[in-house]
Amino acid sequence: MVDQRSIGVALLYCLLLLLFESAFGQQVQQQQQRLSSGIELTALFELRSSLGLRSKDWPRKVDPCSNWTGISCENGSVIRINISGFRRTRLGRLNPQFAVNSLANFTNLISFNASKFLLPGSIPDWFGQRLLTLQVLDLSSCSVTGVIPLSIGNMTNLTSLYLSNNRLTGQIPATLGQLLSLSVLDLSNNLLAGSIPSSFGSLRNLTSLDISLNNLTGPIPLGIGVLSKLQSLNLSSNSLTSSIPAQLGDLRSLVDLDLSSNGLSGLVPQDLRGLRNLQRMNFGNNSLGGSLPVNLFPSPSQLQFIVLRNNNFSGDLPEVLWSIPGLNVLDISHNNFTGKLPSNSASNGSATAAELDISQNKFYGGLTSVLSRFTSTDLSGNYFEGRVPDYVHENASLSTNCLQNVTDQRTLTDCASFYSARGLIFDNFGRPNSTEPPVTESGKSNRNTIILAAVLGGVGLIVVLIVLLLLVSCARRRSTTNHRGIGVGPVPAGEGTPSPGVAINFSSLGDLFTYQQLLQATGDFSDANLIKHGHSGDLFRGVLEGGLPIVVKRIDLQSIKKEAYLLELDFFSKVSHTRVVPLLGHCLEKENEKFLVYKYMPNGDLSSSLYRKSNSEDDSLKSLDWITRLKIAIGAAEGLSYLHHECTPPLVHRDVQASSILLDDKFEVRLGSLSVVCAQEGDGHQNRITRTSEQGSSGPSTALCAYDVYCFGKVLLGLVTGKLDTSSDTETKEWFEQTLPYISIYDKELVTKILDPSLMVDEDLLEEVWAMAIVARSCLNPKPSRRPLMRYILKALENPLRVVREDNSGSARLRTTSSRGSWNAALFGSWRQSSSDVAVIPAASTTKAEGGSSFKHSGTTGSHNGSGDHSSSRRRHSREICPEPPEAQDIERQDRD
Ligand SMILES: *[C@@H]1O[C@H](CO)[C@@H](O)[C@H](O)[C@H]1NC(C)=O
Ligand SMILES: *[C@@H]1O[C@H](CO)[C@@H](O)[C@H](O)[C@H]1NC(C)=O
Ligand SMILES: *[C@@H]1O[C@H](CO)[C@@H](O)[C@H](O)[C@H]1NC(C)=O
Ligand SMILES: *[C@@H]1O[C@H](CO)[C@@H](O)[C@H](O)[C@H]1NC(C)=O
Ligand SMILES: *[C@@H]1O[C@H](CO)[C@@H](O)[C@H](O)[C@H]1NC(C)=O
Ligand SMILES: *[C@@H]1O[C@H](CO)[C@@H](O)[C@H](O)[C@H]1NC(C)=O
Ligand SMILES: *[C@@H]1O[C@H](CO)[C@@H](O)[C@H](O)[C@H]1NC(C)=O
Ligand SMILES: *[C@@H]1O[C@H](CO)[C@@H](O)[C@H](O)[C@H]1NC(C)=O
Ligand SMILES: *[C@@H]1O[C@H](CO)[C@@H](O)[C@H](O)[C@H]1NC(C)=O
C-alpha cells in the first residue's frame, strides 16, 4: 500500500533538497574541495616555510584548497600549485633557496608553476624520480642555475616544460626526447651549449619549441622536420651553423619560424615551400646567401612578418613580396638584393600600418607606388634615382641614394658608376646630361694652351701621315643621327682644328677631353678598371661626370707607333656607321700618351660574351643562344660590308676576330679594333698576282678585303663550333682539319658532329647552323680570289635557309657548280677544293689576292648584278640572296668608282 501522504512528503523533501542544493551549491562544492590529506597539508606548510611565502597569499587557519592563492585541488588532493610572481616574506628574502623537497609528498600534483619566483639553485635530480605525475613544470625566470638533470626525461607525463630565462648551463640532455607528450618546450635565454639533440625528432606532439638565446652550436638536426604539429620554432640567437635543412619544409603546421642571429649559411632551400601555414619568418643576421627561390612562399597571403636582414642575399626579391596584403613587416635590409621596384603594384590600396626596411641593398631605378602602403619606410643606402613621389611617407628614410632634391645622397661618381656597371645611364640627379665639366675662366684658358700645344706637337706627324694615308676618302654616311653617343657636347669652333691642309678633321672626332677628366673617369687608370692590354693600347673602363660610361684607350707612344692612333683618328674622321664603335672623343694633350674615348659596350666583345658565368651559384657557363649568334654574325658582316663596299677605296679592317666584334646592350655589333684599318691595296694593280697567302708569308703588310673575309670565316666557324680563339697557326690548321670535313653542302647532319655542345638547336635552327657553316667554309677558301665578297656573305647570313633549303633545282645547281658560273661560284667556290687543302694564314700578316680572275663571268642566269638595292624587291629569290657575281675585276672597278 502506497501512502498518498508519504509520497507527498517525499516529493516535498526532494523539492527542498533541490532548493537547498541550488542555494548552497557553491558551499557544498567547496566542502568537497577541502583538503583531506594530512600529508599534503603538512607538505604545503613545509613549502610555505621553506620558500618563505607570505600569510597574505597562503593564510593560516583556513582551508588551502578553498582559500590559498594558486592552490587547486581535486578530490581533496592538491593538483596544482602556482606561486608565479609571489613575493617572499622579509625573512624569506634574506636567504632565498630552491627548497621544494615537500613537493614530493603531493601524489596527484599535475602542475607546478613557480615562474618569476626566485629559486636560486639547480633543478633537483629527484624531480625525475618523484614528480612523475607532473604535466606542467614552469620554472621560467627563477634564476635557476646548473645543468638540466638527465632524470627530467623520466617525467613522461609532461606536456609543458618551461625553463626559460634562467642561467642553466651544460648541454641539453638527450633524454628530453623521451617526453613524448610534450607540447611546449621552452629552454630559451639560458647558457645552454652543445648541439640540439637529435632525439628531439621524437617529440611528435610538440607544437612549440623555443631554444633561442643560448649558446648552441652545430647544425639544425634534420629530425626536427618530422615534428608535424610544430607551430612555432625559435632557434634564434645561438651559434648554429651549416645550412637550413630542407626538411624544415615538412613542418606543415608551422606558423612562426625564427632562425635569426645564428651562423647559418648557404642557400634558402626551395623546399621551404612546404611551410603552408607560415605567417612569420625571421632569417635575419645570418650568412645566408644566393637569391631567394621565386616560389619560396607557397601561400603568401598569410605572411605577416618577413625578416631577412643582414645576410648575404643577392639577386632580385621575388615580386610577390611587394603585394602581400597582410604583410606588416618586410625587413630585408643589409643584403645585396638588387633590381627595380615593381611599377604596377597589386596592392596600391590604402596605407596599412606596415613597415618596410630595404635599406643597405642595391636597389635602383625610380621609386614606385608599391611604397604607398607602407607607413614606415627605410630606403637608405640604395641607388634609387629620380624624384621622390608624394606617396612616399614623409618620415621615410631616404639617405645615401641617388635621388633628386634630397640631402645626404651618394656622389655623382658613385651613382654613375653603379648604373654604368649595369649598362644603365644614371639620370644625373635630373640635371642636364653633360660630359663637359663646367668651364671656369682659368680652366678654359688652361685648356686652350694645352690644345695648342697638342696641335703644334702633332702637326709635323700629321703632315707626314697625310701623304701616307689620307688619300682615303670614305663615303661619309652621316644621314642618320649622331652615333657618337648621348650627351656629347658641341665642340667649340676652332678648337682642335689643325692648321689648314691637315686632313684629320678634329671637329668630327667627338669631344676634347682633358687628361684630368680621364683620370677622374677611370679612377686614375686603376688596374681595377683595366679591360685589357690591346695591341694598340690599354683599354680602361670609366664613367664621365655626367654618368656616361666610356672606354678609354691609353696609347703609350713609347711602345706603340704613333701612326696607329693617327690612323685610327683618321678613320673616325672619315667614317661613321652604326656598325662601328662610336668614338666619343680624344685627349692628345700629353706628349707620350694619347687617349681615345669610346662609347662603353655593355656586352664586351664576342670572345668574352660567347660564354659567360651564369648568374646561378654553380660555376656553369652560359653560352649565347643561336639566334644571338646569328644576329652577331649578320651585324659583323654589315660592318665589314660597309667598309669593303661602301667606302672608296675599300677599307680593309685587318683585325677581324672575336675580340674586335664589340656588342652593345642588345648584342648589336659595333666593330672595334680600328687602328690597323687601311685602304685596300692594289689600286691599279689588280692584275698583279701574288701568292703570299699560300706561302704563309709574313712579309710587308698588305691589305685585301679577302683577308677580312678569311678572318670572318674563322669567326663564323667559331660561332658554329663554340671555339673562337686559336692561338697558333698549327692549332688553327688542326682545328680546320677537324672541322671543315664535317661541313658539306650535301649532308646537314654532318654539321652536328662539330656543333658547339652547349648549343641547343632544333631541326629548324640546325638548317641555319648548317648554312653558317657552309658560309664559313667558303670564306676559308685558301685562294683569296675564291672567297665570297662580304656583301654576298651578308645576304647569305640574312637568309640562311635560302642557302641550304633551295628546292631541288637549287640543290641541283649546287652540285653543278661548274655550269654557267652561277652565284654559288661566289659562295661555294671552295667546294671543289679537297678538304685537306686548308689555308692557314698567319694572323699577323695580311694577304694579297690573285687578282680575282677566277670568277667566271656569266650574266645569263642572274638579273641581279650584286650592287643594287635588294630591298626594292620584297620577294627575294635565292639569286638575290647570293647574287651571281660579275667578274671580280668588275666588282673591284665598281667599288673604286
Ligand atoms: C574562504 O573562501 C570563501 C569563499 O571563497 C570565503 O567565503 C571565506 O570567507 C574565506 N575564508 C577566509 C578565512 O578568508
Ligand atoms: C614528505 O616527503 C619527504 C621526502 O620524500 C619524506 O621524507 C617525508 O616523510 C614526507 N612527509 C610525510 C608527512 O609523509
Ligand atoms: C601519466 O598520465 C596517464 C594518463 O593521463 C596516467 O594514467 C598515468 O598514471 C600518469 N603517470 C603518472 C606517473 O602519474
Ligand atoms: C630516471 O632517469 C634516470 C636517468 O635518466 C634513470 O637512471 C632512472 O632509472 C630513472 N628513474 C625512473 C624511476 O624511471
Ligand atoms: C599527442 O597528442 C594527441 C592529441 O593531442 C594525444 O591523443 C596523444 O596521446 C598524444 N601523444 C602522446 C605520446 O602524449
Ligand atoms: C659559447 O660557447 C663558446 C664555445 O662553444 C664559448 O667560448 C663561449 O664563451 C660561450 N658563450 C657563453 C655566453 O657562454
Ligand atoms: C655585397 O656584395 C659585395 C660584392 O660582392 C660584397 O663585398 C659585400 O660584402 C656584400 N654585402 C653583403 C651584405 O652581402
Ligand atoms: C626641392 O625641395 C624643396 C623643399 O624640400 C622644394 O621647395 C623644391 O621645390 C624642390 N625642388 C624640386 C626641383 O623639386
Ligand atoms: C640623361 O640621359 C639619360 C639616358 O639618355 C636619360 O634617361 C636621362 O633622362 C637624361 N637626363 C636628363 C636630365 O636629360
UniProtKB/TrEMBL annotation:
Q: Which PROSITE patterns match?
A: PROTEIN_KINASE_DOM
Signal peptide as annotated in the record: 1-25
* Repeat keyword on record: yes
Record's SUPFAM superfamilies? Answer: L domain-like, Protein kinase-like (PK-like)
Stated membrane topology is: Single-pass type I membrane protein
A cellular component term, taken from the record's GO annotations: membrane
Protein's name according to its UniProt entry: Protein kinase domain-containing protein
